[in-house]
Amino acid sequence: MKSVRRHSPLVVILASLALLACGGLREQFVGTRVKDACTGEWPVCSTTVGCVIGDRSYVEGRFPGSNSVVIQVFEPSTVTLSFLLTEVSGAGEETAINFNEDGCRARVRTTISGRSFVGESEKKGFITRSADLSGVGDHLISWESDARGTYLAKVDVLPLRLKSTEN
Hints:
This protein has helices spanning 9-22, 25-30, 114-124, 160-166, and strands spanning 34-35, 42-44, 47-49, 57-73, 77-90, 94-100, 107-113, 127-133, 137-159.
């Protein structure tokens, strides 16, 4: 007769949690955020965009192309836009990101060469760029790229007062 080895319920639960925690890169990138289909109409900066995203949502898209979202900032903050690239078939020449102040009274523009954009994705798993925005209210964030592939994009907002206490 063969002996049957039994594991305690605690060991089984811990092993199950460890498997769930690992997840793939997509699951780690998205976390508990939900996809916003961007089918709304949000007026900002003399234009209209499809969605407002924040710490509970993300958007999906395809390069080459462009996209715009609205974010809400309640105090001067560092705004970080992150991309998770998938199905990449070409680096393109350049990706540009525009972080606009409220009312588009000023803009921080960041450009990334195609090789750097894809290279950073391959090395770190995702791409991030940040800008400090001082205005309060709705801010237009836009990006365009001639890379080839699909992406997930999310935004994180960290108030400057909290950032200064981290150092």
